[in-house]
Design goal:
Length: 162
Amino acid sequence: MEEHGAVAIDVAPPVLPTTATWGETWTHVGFPTVFGVLVGGVWQVAVQPGLTYGMPNPVQASLLLMLLLAPLLHRWLTDHPYGRWKEYAAGQAVLGLFFIGVWTTGYGGFICGGYLAVVVWIWVSTSWWRFHLPPFRLALWHTLGVNVGALAGSLLAYNVFG
């Protein structure tokens, strides 16, 4: 308790939640991952076989579609005012364009775009839910989920339908 003149002000550290709600888990982990699985899987089966040079691959296509849908995804997945969708799109662009570049390296992309992305995504998903994040950081989280989901969806579709 601090005293300012004759008024006592209680200064307590903010209380962080101890668990995420199911709604928060679906919004920040489930939806981006399912989006990636669906787009990556459909791309792998329906589009990839007809591409002459194999680009964009399923993960790249998922990330590009996510960026194209940034205003809509911002509205659905954040509680920030709609006018801040450009911050959300910027977060998607920064990480999404990085991953698109990584996935152009072929099988070398599995280390950075696959394994390391999964590790970072798990870390982010188990720690960031405690905080009310700005749109840019939420977009980073969601982009990681789409990247991981698209990789899983495309591998699954290739093994089942390929």
